[in-house]
Amino acid sequence: AAQAAAMLHSLGVHTLQLLTQAAACILLFPRFLLTAVMLWLLDFLCIRKKMLTMPTAEEAASASEGPPPDDPPVCVSDSNRMFTLESLKAVWHGQKLDFFKSAHVGSLAPNPEVIQLDGQKRLRILDFARGKRPLILNFGSCT
């Protein structure tokens, strides 16, 4: 009987997770489509602008200086990156991360658990706040 109850509980948890994921997909799909189309249009316009403003062979021969370093030449691969499966996966992942984030503008700050350097004591970030003094978190740099 206990094993059957555990199986039912496990099935209920998995069903709830599946329903949550399905609801998230339904909510995220319009945002995903809008973002994907906007990025595609931006890519298309940037590549079109570069193609239309490319100098002719005569102009290129007469120009002694090359393009500015921040404006690389158009490559064949530039036109192949529009609406690739990899770019759509990245857009979907970004929308999903944004949707499920715990910090939102105007909401209370998240208060996750942290472990002190000695590894023994667990606290919450806001436990370090003192009075009206602002709490500053510095995560440093990994570069």
From TrEMBL:
Q: Which UniProt keywords apply?
A: Membrane, Oxidoreductase, Selenocysteine, Thyroid hormones biosynthesis, Transmembrane, Transmembrane helix
| InterPro entries, per the entry | Iodothyronine_deiodinase
Give the superkingdom in one word. Answer: Eukaryota
User: Please, one GO biological process term?
Assistant: thyroid hormone metabolic process
Give TM segment ranges: 18-42
Which GO molecular function, any one, fits this protein according to its record? Answer: thyroxine 5'-deiodinase activity
One Pfam assignment: T4_deiodinase
Task: Summarize the protein's role.
Answer: Responsible for the deiodination of T4 (3,5,3',5'-tetraiodothyronine).
Protein family according to the UniProt entry: Belongs to the iodothyronine deiodinase family.
Q: What is this protein called?
A: Iodothyronine deiodinase
